[in-house]
Amino acid sequence: MRVTVDLPSMLTRATDGAKHVEVEASDVRGAIETLLVAHPRLRPHLFDEAGALRSNVLCAVDDEPTRLEHHLPPISDGSHIIFVPSVAGG
Amino acid sequence: MTTLLIGTDKGAYALHSDDRDRWEAGKPRFPGWRVTAFGTAPDGTHLAATASNWYGATISRSPDLEAWEEIEDGPAYDAASGRKLKQIWTFHVTGDATVLAGVDEAGLFRSSDNGVSWDPVPGLNDHESRPGWQGGGGGLCAHHVLSDGDRVWVGISSVGLFRSDDGGASFGRFDQGVTPVSTAAEGADMDGWCVHGLVADPADADRIWRQDHMGMYRTINGGESWERIENGLPSGFGFAIRRDHATGRLFNAPIDKPENRTPVDGRFGVYTSDDDGDSWHVAGTGWPDDPGYGIVLRGAMTTDDKDPLGVYVGTTSGEVWGSADGGGEWRRLPGTYPRILTVAAFAD
């Protein structure tokens, strides 16, 4: 299945400028691993030392929020995986 | 040409000058990122450290200060340590052509390939005293590194000064004579000493000046003992310290007491000493008559090593001040920037 990963603009430094990356994968975990193989500099920005999604980074698969831990949302051809920063401000 | 890179809470900015008189702004870099340190590796590759509360900390490399590429294998703690890499505070090139990086959470990393890849230095990172380390207002950060052959010094805020005599394999603690910032709590086994800034004499690296949370200090024996040197300073508190190695002139930027952290009486300016710190006075002329409340953080004072020396400071109010005559005449350089964390000068 072809999946699009949308990234925050601050992380385009790690993707040679790409804000949207298309990957082939059969599930969410595979899609993210494919993303990180293509753009390894993303890994420390999205995941912490223990391999968990950074606490201030949010992820959604087709608008369903996920911490990428246990139950992972299903994907289908054309799915979008989105990484966004948590809101901070006032 | 001299290029001044200004690292801030939000991005990096450049000023360029052919004569250190007229400065022109370059284009901003690293938008949105906290830019925390600059350096130059032994092969001439420039290094920039960036950090984000969302996306962690990493390093970028550049051959020309214009095109920057983020590295893949930056400093990182292993998961088992339970430590997190929050910020890279400093780069230091050692005599054996390696680069050391001091980081928060406090630790030291070494690169032997000009900043491409980094390995932890367990002699410091796993020091026996580590369970007692406590961070201060700026975090638990290793922010200054000095070296002379196999001798390496590392300053850690709220913890103290560490020295290795075996190239970083092991470290001892060297705060004798410095007032601690905390008295060991019941059950704890250590005090904390709060190094803010360090500079050494390259001709005799055991001569070190230490801007500490608790005052200005000097050692002549590599840190075996320290003496307080504050004659003429309006306050012993501050962060930044630099030295003109050609003349021996020292520079610092005094700050009112720790709980206030503004220039004393709103009189912003750099102080200097021409006698190894025995006495201090306001550096030269040109400082504003109007009240100023921005301060100079520990990474935001630099020199360009030209003759005469250029000295530059950036403030938390986003101003950059410079002197092109070794600290005699000062003036404000163009631009107002976000809170300035670090300033570095590069010459073609």
Can you describe what's shown?
The complex is a heterodimer of chains A (90) and B (348). With 90 residues, chain A is of the alpha+beta class. Chain A has helices at residues 28-38, 43-46; strands spanning 2-6, 20-24, 57-61, 64-66, 80-85. Chain A contains 2 helices and 5 strands, in the order E-E-H-H-E-E-E. The model of chain A has no long low-confidence stretch (mean pLDDT 95). The N and C termini of chain A lie far apart (40 Å). Chain A is globular. Chain A has a 5-stranded mixed β-sheet, covered by helices on one side. Chain B has 2 domains: 34-197 and 213-221, Methylamine Dehydrogenase, Chain H; 229-339, no CATH class. Chain B has 1 helix and 28 strands. The radius of gyration of chain B is 19 Å and the shape is globular. The termini of chain B are close together. The mean pLDDT of chain B is 95. The interface between A and B is medium-sized, with 21 and 23 residues.
Keywords:
heterodimer, A: Ubiquitin-like (UB roll), five-stranded mixed β-sheet, 17% helix, B: 348 residues, mainly beta, Methylamine Dehydrogenase, Chain H, four-stranded antiparallel β-sheet, 28 strands, 1% helix, 40% strand
